[in-house]
Amino acid sequence: MKVAIASDHGGVQIRTEIINLMQEMQIDYIDMGCDCGSGSVDYPDYAFPVAEKVVNGEVDRGILICGTGIGMSISANKVKGIRCALAHDTFSAKATREHNDTNVLAMGERVIGPGLARDIAKVWLTTEFTAGRHQTRIGKISDYEEKNL
Ligand code: RB5
């Protein structure tokens, strides 16, 4: 599996934590910034490039972190083919892989700490989609995208 990861200035600490986790798990990753130091950046400028890498097949999954995770998740979900989950607990992280086959995970560094973020990312990275009736449901999302975008 290959993962693209990015954060804005509000998510640098968790991004570093998740990069460390992926190194430990021997998961191939692309770090797409931000290289923002103490400066402020705009989360859509990081969410869209990561989401595009997922839909064009350069990577399998994306992970996005901002202050709340909300801006990143809204932005990523604007990209056709992206199913991004904002998850701040491990139950949701597992369920959203099993039920929604999410291809992007968003988290908020002003909401949770790095330890919980690590646990969430680990569960999300290692849980498989269960398909079956859930495939029908995500198929309806894809059909809607095809007709309306
Ligand atoms: C940046 O101040 C903050 O708005 C951003 O990190 C994120 O929380 C937006 O949803």
UniProtKB/TrEMBL annotation:
InterPro entries: RpiB, RpiB_LacA_LacB, RpiB_LacA_LacB_sf, SPI_LacAB/RpiB. It holds the Pfam family LacAB_rpiB. Its EC number is 5.3.1.6. The keyword Hydrolase does not apply. It is an enzyme of class 5 (isomerase). It comes from the Bacteria. Keywords: Isomerase. GO terms for molecular function: ribose-5-phosphate isomerase activity. Belongs to the LacAB/RpiB family. PANTHER family: RIBOSE 5-PHOSPHATE ISOMERASE, RIBOSE 5-PHOSPHATE ISOMERASE-RELATED. This is Ribose-5-phosphate isomerase B. It comes from Bacillus atrophaeus (strain 1942).
